[in-house]
Amino acid sequence: MGTSDQTRNARFILSFDCEGKWGMADDPAMASNHPIGDDSLAKAYKRIFEILDKYEIPGTFALVGLFAGRYEDYVESRDQLLQSKPHKEWLQIPEQSFAAGVMDGWFYPELVDNIRSKGMHEIASHSYSHLPLHNSDVNKNSFLTELNFVKQWKEKNSVDLSTFIFPRNQIRYQEVLNDFDYLGYRQCDIQNAAYGSRLKTLQDECNIGRKSDKHSVSAKPVAIPPGTFLNWRHGPRRVIPKWVTLKRWSNVLDHAVASGGVAHLWLHPHNLITARGQVELFEDAILRVAKAQKSGLIESVTQAEYCEEIAQQA
Are 60 and 16 in contact (CB under 8 A)? Predict the structure, then answer.
């Protein structure tokens, strides 16, 4: 992972992959009625903000540009996107959805202001259309197209973007991030990779002895520790008891405190919509962080703050 023990103070990082339906734009179910919609997304984010306000925990919200915009923004970029073969294939289902007049769950233009209004969170990038970089025919030019559209989105919304989270944790061409002034990106371990073994993922979810990550070394861009995915209680994952997930997360926190490591928790906000008991699970995990922070055992930072800290130590 390119990490070391250079920093010995325990750190907590919380990151969100904010994508709405764009995260599953290749799933035909997204073109019809689906639990992920405008109202359910607004409620999920509202609950997240309430929990983070309650425990005074900052988060890094990595936004898909199209999700954090309006349909009109998609129309403006549509022709250029569709000139790219990988994008044309990726956008087939969104195109079907929009042609049928179904916009629900694809756009959340109020999200940027909602995050900014809290004053303590970071807005990061999760690409422009959520194009997975391991898809067929995707190359560096495809990624540059994404980054250039994100740059336009950033300027239009007067947002500073310092860190990046790759769609589906599929990391490629990360050196290009330097040309767009990103300080770092969230690294990935095989258990959290979209192309990883589902069996190994489930086995890792049950590993209550999971440890925290070591700190990153100074690099351009910084490979931010990959962290721990908060189990999404859906499908086969729902059989994993909450106590196992919380025991696993508590061990990560305890190990970070004891070793001076990094406890990085990440999830998709829409997971709070599609899994029973997910809101309570999230709050229980954050409560454990808040207690450790209140005791002075760990400090919560955003991804950008973490990268700046690593750079200063170098």
Answer: yes
